[in-house]
Amino acid sequence: MNFPKSPFLFKINKHPSPLSDKKREEILKNPGFGQFFTDHMVIIKWTEDKGWYDAIISQYKPLEISPASVILHYAQGIFEGLKAYRAKDGRILLFRPEANAQRFVESAKRLAMPELPKDIFLDAVKQLVKIDQKWVSDHPNASLYLRPFMFGNDNLLKVHPSREYIFCIIASPAESYFTGQKTTISVWLETDYSRAGPGGTGTAKCGGNYAASLIAQNNATQNNCSQVLFLDMVEHKWIEELGGMNICFIMANNILVTPALNGTILAGITRHSILKLAQQMGLTIEERPYSFEELKEDVKSSHLKEVFACGTAAVITAIGRIKYKDGECIIANETCGEITEKLRTQLIDIQKGNIEDKNGWVHSVRLS
Ligand SMILES: Cc1ncc(COP(=O)(O)O)c(C=O)c1O
Hints:
Layout: E1 11-12, H1 21-29, E2 40-47, E3 51-59, H2 70-74, E4 77-79, E5 82-86, E6 92-95, H3 97-110, H4 118-131, E7 143-152, E8 164-174, E9 184-190, H5 207-222, E10 227-231, E11 239-242, E12 246-251, E13 255-258, H6 269-280, E14 284-287, H7 292-300, E15 304-311, E16 315-324, E17 327-330, H8 338-351, E18 362-364
Parallel strand pairs: 1-3, 9-10, 9-16, 13-14
Antiparallel strand pairs: 2-3, 2-8, 4-7, 5-6, 5-7, 6-18, 7-8, 10-11, 12-13, 12-15, 15-16, 16-17
The structure holds pyridoxal-5'-phosphate.
């Protein structure tokens, strides 16, 4: 797949003293998630008069913003998350980056922000990966997590859409999101707090959604769960998604059920890819409302066989236990089910270029 050619010129100021090979290799042995950052970052600015201007790739460093900046007070900010993988033949592969570029446009619209043209988004991602290519490790389970983000930076306390914006991309070497876990995770079904409601920002990837989820995430942690599972805001009945991932259920008769995109759930790119792969594997897909009551019945009757979380960070992670105030459901004896494992392996093999990419999802970054 080829990206359209961006007419945009990036000024490139290479880091004068990037991390030594030895120190970088040390980090890449055990990067965790989101703890370390590569040598460079992208910055592009926007104002009403100039549009997008001053695109630069330079060393990773703190940003200087006014204490009155709109982002600090009114959270006018959006972000994306995608990964670059090292293939066995040395190529660096991006997974569906144009889908992230498109979702970034949608998020910007919802938060009354200017749209970053997709070709600029893609070019910026590509250029950062190229300059920091040594940070894309070939260790199994390793990737370079790319975090594009944009925020309103107007220096005015009145509540208003900012008249100035900054777009950045930073990159962070990553391994599995859920470390130190068994093959399955436990999730906390939250009944007091919701993540997003009708007409709200649930479908946008904006920081406010995550801020609203943190108190429930604390409940999850206190109950020894690694993620929170949200119900809908109106009836507190319908399963929506996890704090940072979508959720899928595999039923006895090869049916994959996942909550429909109802205007409050983030349209995960991994979710979309899995639905396609599952369909190609012969599963029947049901995107529909699925209630917690139905889930409990399905567990009791053994109709529900497997549950998994899916997202860029988590890839596909089996859920073995769903805890809630009055009890818990155990799924597949807390093991990773056959279909979950098959989908996981297939997705990772496509992302890493080990098998044919029939859907045209993978883009190889030109490195020279
Ligand atoms: C709330 C939420 N839902 C779902 C997802 C999964 O989206 P994707 O597969 O595009 O990473 C994410 C992660 O980005 C998320 O934060």
